[in-house]
Amino acid sequence: MVMLAWVLPMPAGVLATGAVVVALIGWARAVLRDHTPAQALAGTAAGAAATAATLVLML
């Protein structure tokens, strides 16, 4: 959702909410010991990279 801000106009509140949700999911995965903090960060980076690549290919 945050990556879409580059191409689609969205209210700042929507973007902030998306960023908070992503951060909370990463935090929860680490706290539940499903992933290490490094894995959660890597997943976030991979998701952002996949979104950016998709946008580049589609636009």
In short:
This protein is mainly alpha-helical.
Count of beta strands: 0
Report how far the terminal alpha carbons are from each other: 16 Å
Spell out the helices and strands N to C: HH
Instruction: Determine the strand fraction and express it as a percent band.
Output: under 5%
- What general outline do the C-alpha atoms trace? flat
Q: Rg from C-alpha positions?
A: 13 Å
**How confident is the prediction overall: mean pLDDT?**
81
How would you characterize the overall build of this protein?
With 59 residues, this protein is mostly helical. Helix content is 71%, strand content 0%. It has two helices and no strands. It has helices spanning 12-31, 37-58. Helix 1 runs antiparallel to helix 2 (37-58). It is flat, with a radius of gyration of 13 Å. The protein starts with 11 loop residues before the first helix and ends with a helix. The mean pLDDT is 81.
Keywords for this entry:
59 residues, mainly alpha, 2 helices
Blueprint of the fold:
Blueprint: H1 12-31, H2 37-58
Helix pairs in contact: 1-2
